[in-house]
Amino acid sequence: MFGEMDFEERPLVLIWELTQACELACKHCRADAQQRRHPDELTTAEGKALLDEAREFGEGQLVVLSGGDPLARDDVAELVDYGTDRGLRMTLTPSGTHSLTRERLAELDEAGLRRMALSIDGGSEAAHDRFRGESGSFAATMDAAETARELDIPLQVNTTVCAETVEQLPAIRELVADLGAVLWSVFFLVPVGRGRVLTPVDPDRAERVMEWLHEVSDEAPFGVKTTEAPHYRRVGLQNGEDDEGVRRRTGVRAGKGFAFVSHTGEVYPSGFLPESAGNVREESVVDVYRDSTLFRRLRDDDALTGKCGACEFRGVCGGSRSRAYATTGDPLAADPLCTYEPDGFEGSIPDQHPAD
User: Fold this and answer.
1) Bond into 122 cis (ω within 30)
2) pTM (two decimals)
3) Would you say 94 and 70 are in contact if contact means Cβ atoms under 8 Å apart?
4) Which structural domain range is residue 256 located in?
5) Cα torsion 12, 320, 307, 276: sign
6) Residue 286 resides in a domain
7) What is the pLDDT of residues 217-247, one digit of tens each?
8) Residue 273 lies in a domain
9) Which H or E element spans position 258?
10) Total number of domains in the chain
11) CA–CA distance, 322 with 344 (Å, rounded to integer)
C-alpha cells in the first residue's frame, strides 16, 4: 500500500490535533500545551465534517487523533466510532495522565480504535517523569500499555531524541520490546514550541543513532520508523539495506504524505511546520492538501535548496522540512541535522538554532 500511494493525491497520515489542553508540561511539547481547552476548538460536528472530508482521500485513510491530550475531550470515542464507520483507520496519541483509565480505553476499543501510541522518553520512571514534567506519568503510561495489551489494541511507542534523552535509547528499546509494541517511532527534535529550550543531538551523533536504529530494526520484534529524520532512509541505503525495503518508505515528509489539522482547523504540512495553508472551516482539507501552493511546493523535490536540493538522495529523503523551517524560516532549505555532503556541493549549511 505504502509504495503504491500517490502522495500528490492523499497523505499517508492525517493528524487532527483535537485540543492543546493537557495536564503535563513536557519539555519538548510542540503544542506548548495548556491546562484549559481553547474556546475555538473544532466542535464535535465540525470534527465529523472533517472526517467526512478525510474519507474523500480514499478508503482506509489513516487518521491520528492527537493533542495536547486528546482525552481532555469527552467526545473522542464518538469521533473514533464515526470515523471507523466511514472506513477510516482511527488511531490515538494520548498523554500519560490519569485520563488513561481502563474504562476509557475499553470504550475506544469498542469504538474501533486501530492503534494507540504512547510516549516513553526515559528508560526509567525518574528519567521519563523528569522529561515529562509530571510525577506519575511513567506509571500511568505503563498501566495504559498493559491495558492496551489486555484489550488487544496494537501499541506504538513514540520517543524524542535530544541531548537529554539520547543516552536512554537502549533502555527504552528494551521497554518497547517488553511492552509488546508493534512499532517504535523515534522523533528527532525540531526546535518548536517548548522544544526550543532543549538541545538537539549534533549531526554526527544523529547519524550514529540512525545507524544503530537500523541494527535494532533488523533484530527487534517490532518495527522502527523515524519522525522528522527522513535521512534515516539514506543511512539505510548507504549501509547496505535492501533498496526495495528503503523505497517502500520513500518520500514521506511534511506536506508530502503528511498533513496536520490544528485544534482550530488550520491545515499545516506538519505540526512541527506551523505555516497554515488554509482552514477546514473555510475549505476542504482534501483541496488544501492537493492544491495549495505550500503543499505543492513541499512535494516538489526539485524545489529544495542548499545541499538538500543538490543531493542525489532527495527523492528518498528530502530532509526535514520542519527543521529547515524552524532553523532558517525557509521550509525548502537544507536540513541542518544531516551530515551527508553531496559531491561538488560547496554551499553553507545552517546550524540547528531557530531562526529569529
Assistant:
1) no
2) 0.90
3) yes
4) 13-302
5) positive
6) yes
7) 999 999 999 999 999 999 999 887 765 555 5
8) yes
9) strand 258-261
10) 1
11) 26
